[in-house]
Every structure is written in structure tokens, then in C-alpha cells.
Amino acid sequence: MREREFWTLLEEVFGRVYGRSLAEDQRLAALDSMTVYEALEAGVEPRVVWNVLCDQMEVPDPQRWGKDHNAPPLPAA
Fold it and tell me: For a 10 Å CB count at each end of the chain, is N or C smaller?
């Protein structure tokens, strides 16, 4: 997942205003309490940030990828 895809999904799943608010204010416990912006800036893979945010916000797996998206492949280990 590219960062551009991350922001597209964020707006689709959470809405533009609420999604951007989450990215700025929501502390992600699984990522050392960084915000979305901080995690991405620190180099955390966008897919990881997305899954952590969705887990924390209890977004069911079928809804996390939006209506027209497939889950991107896992990053190489």
C-alpha cells in the first residue's frame, strides 16, 4: 500500500473530516502511541498504520478496504 492509497481509504472508510481528525488526534497504542501522521513520518509502512488504526477503531475486516478495494499484499519480511 502506498501512502496515497492510505489517505484515499482513510477518507472513504471514515469520511474526510473525521478521518483527518483521527489521523491528527488518535494515538495508536500498538505504535508507541504515535498518531497516524507521526507513524507515517517515522517510516512505518502505511499498511501497518492502516491495520493498527482499523483494529483500534474496531473496523471489521470486510469494511477496512472500502467498497472497491482489495486488501494489498503483505510487505515482504
Answer: C
Q: Which residues of 11-20 are buried (b: 16+ CB within 10 A; e: fewer)?
A: ebbbeeeebb
Type of residue numbered 39 = A
**Residue whose entry in the numeric block shows the C-alpha cell 474496531:** 58
- Give per-residue pLDDT as tens, 17-34: 999 999 999 999 999 999
Handedness of CA 53, 59, 62, 65 (dihedral sign): negative
Q: pLDDT of 37-67, one tens digit each?
A: 999 999 999 999 999 999 999 998 888 887 7
Residues 21, 30, 48: CA angle, nearest 5 degrees: 75
No. of helices (H) and no. of strands (E), the chain: 5, 0
Question: Count of residues for the chain?
Answer: 77
